[in-house]
Amino acid sequence: MFDLSTGSSRDCRGVSRREFLRVGGLSALGLSLASFLRLQAAAAKPAARKKTINCILLWMQGGPSHHDTFDPKPDAPAEVRGEFATIPTTLSGVRVAEHLPLLAKQTDKYSIIRGHDPKNGSHGVADHLMMSGRPFNASLPFPCYGSVVSRERGYRDGMLPFVQLGRFIDRRFNGGIAGFLGDEFNPFEVGDDPNAPGFKVRDLSVASEADRKRLERRYAMLGDLDRYQKEVEEAPQVVRARDTFYEKAHALITSPAAKKAFAIDQESEKLRERYGRNMFGQSCLLARRLIEGGVHFVTVTDGGWDTHQNNFKSLKERKLPVLDRAYSALLQDLHDRGLLDTTLVVWFGDFGRTPKINPSAGRDHWATAGVACMGGGGVKRGEVVGATNALGEFVIDSPVTPQDLAATIYHTLGIPLHTWYRAQDGRPIELVPEGKPVRQLVG
Questions:
Q1: In contact, 342 and 315? CB cutoff 8 Å
Q2: Which pLDDT does position 32 carry in this prediction?
Q3: What angle do CA 237, 31, 425 make, to 5 degrees?
Q4: What proportions of the chain, in percent to the nearest 5, are helix, strand and coil?
Q5: For residues 165 and 176, what is the distance between their CA atoms, to the nearest angstrom?
Q6: Burial call 160-184: b when 16+ CB within 10 Å, e when fewer
Q7: Is residue 73 within 8 Å of 392, Cβ to Cβ?
Q8: What's the predicted TM-score (pTM) here?
């Protein structure tokens, strides 16, 4: 078991390590930053890699309608077809919903998985299943993709390995966390809106020069305290090891690289407008900056997709224009910067939605059909994988389960599917016991 305490010893000036590490609001998922870094360092060092593929996961909490996005049914009855027309894409014979015009022009940069079979229709459970590729198990929470990447790779150039933007994840069933791998591999969460004026990451920010001087003074005090403890309390190697974690925390807080990666205000106004001046659009832009700055895995979360009522009004006025603008801008921006070949971009949500429109002009949960998209990172682009029947009720060709999505993601990121871990009770756990990489994308 890991000790999450930062200690409470005080020197004569009344400064504890915990207080030192709370300067600037330093906390990540309830951990002080040094504890977070200490736990990260407990992982085994990864083997050297010839080519690193990173990942941006766009998570649509609530479950987007496949009919009204990437798998429309224009020939179905009106109660299934819905209110939206369809438009052509760059792929012959492939059409998408009319409110995705920018993404319709970008299908050379991603593939559409119309054969996605979610295998589940319940919120919370879906967050766990879709983000890990493993069914929910109350006695054994499985790690999400970003946590596995964090476990396997660790830090690069002093940057956090796994960052989550936004808090639109249902955690009731351990979705989006490190599970049995341990809290040290949880994401570093940024809940603030990057579109807000003066956006800063509170856990990594020193607000003013006075705060910076206070930080440096407390860091020096900590050194004095540790030197004293080295003499009277602990073995030298213990203190040296502990110092390493505090030094890394201090380095990250004051790191020009970390500051630069999160400094979204350094982007041109033209580019920020291209992504969309809203939380999701700017989160996608920030995700690109983080990948560029050395983060391995970024989850961008977006809520509001649970459209039981007023499905078409909500999608037309709020959700689809924002998605279309941000997702397409991200793909184009990565491409323009030469990053798309080394950045896997994945889009999906909880599950699909009912083919038949309900009396409230909404669509309810649907467990046997959905849609996902995947592009970059070396996967094949411009593909349409699988198909649903004429009403979008179930998959009739090339089904792709959450386990298959997991296998495809790990395969693309270079993590062996048959990697084994030990749960906290000692039992061996295989990373992907079921599921195979989607051959149309990686074959």
A1: no
A2: 55
A3: 75
A4: 40, 15, 50
A5: 12
A6: bbbbbbbebbbeebbbbbbbbbbbb
A7: yes
A8: 0.83
